[in-house]
C-alpha cells in the first residue's frame, strides 16, 4: 500500500522529497480522519482522495508564499543585523512593512463583509472550509460559494493590474 501511495505521490509532485512529504501528510490525515472512513468502501480510493486533497492544499499554500530571492552580495552579518532590527521594530512598523498593494486593498474593499471574511479566513489564515463555517456560524456549502464568488470578484477587480515578477511575469492581464 505504501509503495502505491509513494508512486502516486511521485507522479503528483515530480520530486522524491516532496513525494515522501506528501505520503507522510496523507497518512497523518488518514489516521486523524479514520472515523470518516466508511466500512465496505474502497480504502485505497479513500487514501488517494486524501493524497490529492493534501497535494492541492500544499500547491495553493506555495502559490501564496512570497517569492524568495537570494542575493549573494549580502553578508551574513547584515542578515543577522537585520534580523535583530526586525525583532525590535514596533507593531506599527511591522504593519506598514506588510501592507498589501493599494490595488489589492481597493479590491478587498469592494467585497461585501461576508465575502471579505470568508476570503480572509480561507486564504490568509489558511483555514479549512469546516473551520471557516464554524467560525462564521454558516454551512460549509455557503462558505464554498462565498469563497468562490469573492475570488472571482477579486480576479475581476485586479484584471488590469500588473503582475509581480515573483508571481510569474511583469505583464498586465
From TrEMBL:
PROSITE patterns: SIGMA70_ECF. Residues 7-64 form the RNA polymerase sigma-70 region domain. InterPro entries: RNA_pol_sigma-70-like, RNA_pol_sigma-70_dom, RNA_pol_sigma70_ECF_CS, RNA_pol_sigma70_r2, RNA_pol_sigma70_r4_t2, RNA_pol_sigma_r2, RNA_pol_sigma_r3/r4-like, WH-like_DNA-bd_sf. Keywords: DNA-binding, Sigma factor, Transcription, Transcription regulation. One of its GO terms (molecular function) is sigma factor activity. Signal peptide: none annotated. Pfam families: Sigma70_r2 (PF04542), Sigma70_r4_2 (PF08281). Residues 103-154 form the RNA polymerase sigma factor 70 region 4 type domain. It comes from the Bacteria. GO terms for biological process: DNA-templated transcription initiation; response to stress. Belongs to the sigma-70 factor family. ECF subfamily. This is RNA polymerase sigma factor. It comes from Mycolicibacterium flavescens (Mycobacterium flavescens).
